[in-house]
Amino acid sequence: MSIYFKKVGEQLFRVTCMVLLVMGLSACLYEMRQKASIPYQVIAITGSPSRQLLGQLQVDFLTYLDVNVAVHPVDADLLVEILQDAPNSQIASSTSSGQISGYDLNDVVVFRAFDQAGHEVISPTEIYGVRDINFSPHTVLSADIQERQMIEDIRKELAMQITLHLMALGSRTSHIQQ
């Protein structure tokens, strides 16, 4: 009989802790994170983004912004135009025998945003992503794979930077309205 009361006591303790946690969080005005609100309902991505950047932008817009992504620019009330998406690499280091042992990877994206009326909402903006890659000359094949993964990571970060620029539009308009 005492084992039964011990289990009931443990369950009661857990429930009490959970209730206190929820009450504590609600007391400090905690609420679930919501999507950022911007003054546009539908966004289209135009210009010349790479396939990776385009896909990541679509995912980020749908995940972090309270908008839909249009396939055709005619259907959108905000157009994000990718003017340049140019990954590039430079030799950073080499061995004494002249074999390459490191690269500097960088990607430059230039974008702008404008509404359907043609008013520029975000002027042409350059954003950069940079990575250093070092490898052994004996593992050249893995260096190619690593380079592709790093370019993909850079593009994810660049897509998030563009998303953050769009999130700032929401905070700008809320300050103007107040």
Task: Please summarize what this structure is.
The protein has 178 residues and is an alpha/beta fold.
Please list the strands of the largest sheet in the order they lie side by side: 2-1-3-4-5
Q: What are the segments in which pLDDT stays under 50 over at least 5 consecutive residues? A: 174-178
Tell me, briefly, the overall form: flat
Helix-strand sequence: HEHEEEEH
Count of structural domains: 2
Helical fraction = 40-55%
Q: Would you report the number of β strands?
A: 5
Mean pLDDT: 81
CATH superfamily of the largest domain: Lipoprotein like domain
Tally of helical segments? 3
CATH architectural grouping of the largest domain = 2-Layer Sandwich
- Our Rg estimate from Cα atoms comes to 24 Å
Note the main sheet.
5 strands, mixed
What share of residues are in beta strands?
A: 25-35%
- Given helix and strand content, the structural type is alpha/beta
Distance separating the two termini? 64 Å
